[in-house]
């Protein structure tokens, strides 16, 4: 279906397929809400489950043509690559350990990739994906989705424009309560695979939520981790992987800070936050109140910048659908990322130049690899008694 | 397109048309975001603007088939009623004064109606619509959209289940700042028609936002206004209609309270709130933090119930897409209303029974008329020096 | 005891006596905390209870000389007036109905008065006190104590300096929960007299807390009530007086607004708030977070001014003891009022000129009478079916 | 002056002297506000400044008898020890490096000591004070004053009573902005000595505020630091000592956590906070809103316990002067500590038994020494590249 865009240009919706995300899955549905919101993406194929029955039923739920519902992602990559109306990009929403092999299969088939975080469970896989993406000149984007929030983008814009001056400190945290009790031992599906080293990787808490806090800190501050010193621990006896991480970070630009992650903190459901301090001002953002950005120029009282309000800048306005205080939330942020990802992928496939300012807004394979590197460095530091360990990727 | 629903049943997407909502309109786009989210509705026709050029361009933007883009709502009602694949329902998102005539045209054509608030600008029109809807055995639903918020529904459920005991006080308010300056006199489009008696009705502030506060109070408390005593005023010299309203309310169940509305209050963008007190507990909800419901059982400290969290009840869970603290917002609430509206209309058209519990969740023509009655009563009371005036509809 | 002040001048502590405030009383102890904080006041005499035994024991608790503990306020006024070291001022902290007779006795004895609110239970008494104070050229100050908060004073200063422009709306509320259940019927002492018409006056809720909200609105806005339209009601069956009041107010300067008071609202302990909107900016203050003032210049995002912080003005700095975010609270605000009251009374007794800017900070007999007038007007309006009723004093 | 207490017993006010705290000093005045509030303490002597002129003038300000104003603390210790009405305790409010020598002088003179934090600038001094206090059987109490907050005590009580279950994580932070710019280089008095190694000790930020966060964490959790790994840094070029500290902590009971301290974070004036998570519940308290304690039992929504409110326990009620939502603040908390300190010292001097539950509420010389040990361990860890370093005292 081709239709005119608001600015008059004709634009086809991006044709997308999904691997994972069948019935009973969690994050796949989130991706679909996000894809739908702006009507720029058409979900037309899927290998929605490794269980053939679930795959077929899930495809029917979503109105996929039966012949484009696949039981196997390799078959899907082959078949879709061969179709004239085949998918242009695939979304990977499986458990962590499958991200790399699936991404590899589609990249090799010439299909661009949108992959959930973490990019992979091992650093070797991450490095290989960076190389493969470059070699094949394809796009691999990672749904480190908090970068889609309007006020996160405003924060990034304010830092980049120098409103904070030299950055001195960068802290981020992601705190949850859902693993406070040993539900993984009791067979709860989401908990079970996330705490299994074979599917989650070397660290459960960092792979699952720590990478979000880390990426958020990087995205807003414009800095990367130089070295880390980590204390990882398991609060719940018998759990196979860590569920808490306290990590000291020295950032590339000279700032210091912390990345904290916990899945056993009653009182916090999904409490993601970032605080950045410069010599001229401080900024705070919290995912539980995503519409607000607390901005504190030194020497003045703090102000609360509201998305869509008087203090919203260009970066926030670009992704605002609603007026101020008609709250946008998690799905809208995710949809912002999808809209930008679709634009990048379409431009890339059309051979058009991509605005670097746009590219910088959507985490790519290198950003994903940095997250994997961060996890690996923290695990290594923890094993070495908290020694400062390099976290630079590349 | 027919596809299987999650529970295995086959269900067509509801075919819908839209009147109003072309380029540069505000609320039409909001409705479209809401329709898309759950993929249960197909927008297939429209008379998107009274300006033919805008109508056509807007239809193209949305991928409507050119032959189903109409320059005139009457032509649309006729043509769609005649098509075998014609729309099942129309969404009306025009200025207030057109709601009643457009709704009338579609109801008479046998097409169900989803109408933005207020239902009409006069009480006579509202009464006529109630009668017409009944006479034609059609559905006319009103997008008093705050009823779609998960925690508003939870609040209603808690009141209904007796957790607050006998209700003693009900207060609601809707406070904005956007008309603090005379932008209507300067020709700002949204401000201009909303302060024009010919298009907005007898009261600007009550028709535009007061009805939201009023409906929210009714919906949560389960009560209606018995009498009102109102002080309406215009803060900005020269404005043609009021921009502030302070209204005392005596509710049917014996409770008392206030409905406040202001469009000239710096510091508030869209600050909708409701507070309900019973002999056993109090409840507060605020649209700027829609995911939280403050619940205060007398004799205990207040707790903050978070959508999706440990204290979420059945009514909230039914409309939760995301886990707790992955915030849902205005669009999601609107989408909840659309999903329920679609279910009601489809069942009605199929001749199936509609669960009264579901019907009660979606404001209908009577609820819309109650809002118009509330505005009329407040205007009358104000004119009569604040005398207590009946606000009962029917 | 005479000692040097910080600026080198010699200053005696103000000699004060107290009527009421014995063991088991509530507000007397608050006054004593406030008097002590700055060490500018010496409590040297008292008629602390009408029960002689309680009076003596209470005096001993406080280290009063036994001969200056009186069983009767009239005896105290006579005796203290006759002593060369007699009290310079008396503090009245009895139930409401005794305020006027006690104040009268001390004024007639040439002793200045600091009286708790409300000034009196009848308007006639209030008028008589205004006249008597003027006739005797004495000071009668009223501990409408919220005027002592640093950020309330900053708010007043900002309004007075024009930062809000012309004032358009003024709202205040005082919401409590403590009378949610019929504890007055069960004999709870504080509840019992406050709901007794003979001791509390015509309205319980307005005399007890409504006058605080009203005074706060007046103090900050610099306006007085012109007319009111009131809905008073009793939430708890069988209670002898009202426990809820919703009052519409038209202010002298043309602004409109509301004064709400409730003692039956679970979730609110002592929730006093004021919101003021001008054509240029809005201000909000809340007694539960007294260190913060929310300031919203139109066209900018809201900022939170913190006492002692970068945005604190002269009025707040003058009464700040602690740096920002070392919170000051209710006692400190009360102490600010006492310090200013003592300075006014000492200057007055010394025949010195009193800075009008200082006088304006401490509610006097006229301010107290305005509160009584407000209560009387609301009661009258309520009885007259909510008719607009003059609330101007004098 | 001897007077009867509320319970009928006769009790003299504790006679106290002060070293430091003259004109232009900061914390001395805070101590005096705290002493006055409950009228249980008489300030009767002082060596208020090392500058004799300032000392005399400051003493006159406070109404001290001239002969009890000393220019030298050693002279004061000697003279007061010799007077029959000499001071029973001395309060030390000088720069850090003088704490130990002054405390030593008074302890040796048989006078009990109330010392501001940190106990000393070196660990050797701290150890010597612990020994001296024991040898002389005297009391040395440390005004780690956050332990005086009602809701901090409630938090401690809840942890101790097992409401959180086994403690898993303990985090505390103290964040300020006042050293964001190089005001120490510009000669600001408070900044100048606090960043001078000779007067502040090895770490500025930890000695000044880090010890508060650390003590708060210990007091509430009932745990001590086992080992620490620290990253200390100086945000402002040229500053002589650190102004930021990020410290990982492993606690004695097996919990992990962090202590963060910063003096260069715009947006935070005095932002002290503690978060404690157990296997059954979480608790959060923040010094900027000291009246509230957020309590989150796992499996329920969070509730906000308000001092004086329905959920206040015995520990909070014991130190509540005001009803709920008449906020108490920093001075009241400090006064709570003073009232308990006075009771401990008076009982000790009278040879009476001291309730261990009371003793545990007031930090003593060992608690002070633990803070010094914490600072020393963090400095050592930082110097050793963040190696885990023992922080156990004794």
From TrEMBL, chains A, B, C, D:
Residues 152-283 form the GFO/IDH/MocA-like oxidoreductase domain. GO terms for molecular function: nucleotide binding. Pfam families: GFO_IDH_MocA, GFO_IDH_MocA_C3. It comes from the Bacteria. Residues 14-142 form the Gfo/Idh/MocA-like oxidoreductase N-terminal domain. Transmembrane segments: none annotated. PANTHER family: CONSERVED EXPRESSED OXIDOREDUCTASE (EUROFUNG), OXIDOREDUCTASE. This is Putative dehydrogenase. It comes from Kaistia hirudinis. The lineage of its organism: Bacteria, Pseudomonadati, Pseudomonadota, Alphaproteobacteria, Hyphomicrobiales.
């Amino acid at each position: 279906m081709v239709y005119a865009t608001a600015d008059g240009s004709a634009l086809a919706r991006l044709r997308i397929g999904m691997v994972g995300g069948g019935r009973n899955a969690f994050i796949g549905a989130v991706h679909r809400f996000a894809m739908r919101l702006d009507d720029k993406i058409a979900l037309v194929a899927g290998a929605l489950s490794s269980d053939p029955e679930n795959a077929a039923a899930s495809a029917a739920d979503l109105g996929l043509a039966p012949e484009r519902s696949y039981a196997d992602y390799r078959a899907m990559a082959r078949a879709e690559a061969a179709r004239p109306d085949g998918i242009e990009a695939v979304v990977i929403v499986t458990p962590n350990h499958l991200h790399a092999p699936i991404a590899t299969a589609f990249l090799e088939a010439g299909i661009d990739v949108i992959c959930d975080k973490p990019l992979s469970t091992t650093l070797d896989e991450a490095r290989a994906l960076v190389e493969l993406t470059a070699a094949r000149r394809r796009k691999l984007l990672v749904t480190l989705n908090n970068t889609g929030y309007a006020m996160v983008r405003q924060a990034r814009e304010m830092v980049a424009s120098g409103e904070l001056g030299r950055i001195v400190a960068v802290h981020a945290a992601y705190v949850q309560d859902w693993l406070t009790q040993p539900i993984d031992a009791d067979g709860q599906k989401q908990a079970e695979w996330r705490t299994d080293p074979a599917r989650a990787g070397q660290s459960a808490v960092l792979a699952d939520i720590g990478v979000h806090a880390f990426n958020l800190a990087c995205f807003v501050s414009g800095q990367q981790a130089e070295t880390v010193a980590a204390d990882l621990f398991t609060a719940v006896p018998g759990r196979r992987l860590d569920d808490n991480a306290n990590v000291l970070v020295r950032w590339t630009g000279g700032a210091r800070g912390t990345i904290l992650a916990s899945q056993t903190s009653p009182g916090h459901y999904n409490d993601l936050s970032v605080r950045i301090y410069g010599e001229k001002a401080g900024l705070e953002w919290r995912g539980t109140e995503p519409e607000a950005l607390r901005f504190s120029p030194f020497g003045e009282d703090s102000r609360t910048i509201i998305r869509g309000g008087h203090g919203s800048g260009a970066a926030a306005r670009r992704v605002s659908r609603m007026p101020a205080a008609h709250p946008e939330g998690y799905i809208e942020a995710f949809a912002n990322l999808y809209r930008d990802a679709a634009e990048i992928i379409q431009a890339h496939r059309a051979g058009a130049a991509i605005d670097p300012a746009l590219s910088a807004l959507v985490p790519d394979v290198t950003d994903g690899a940095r997250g994997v590197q961060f996890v690996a460095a923290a695990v290594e530091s923890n094993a070495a008694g908290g020694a400062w360990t390099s976290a630079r990727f590349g």
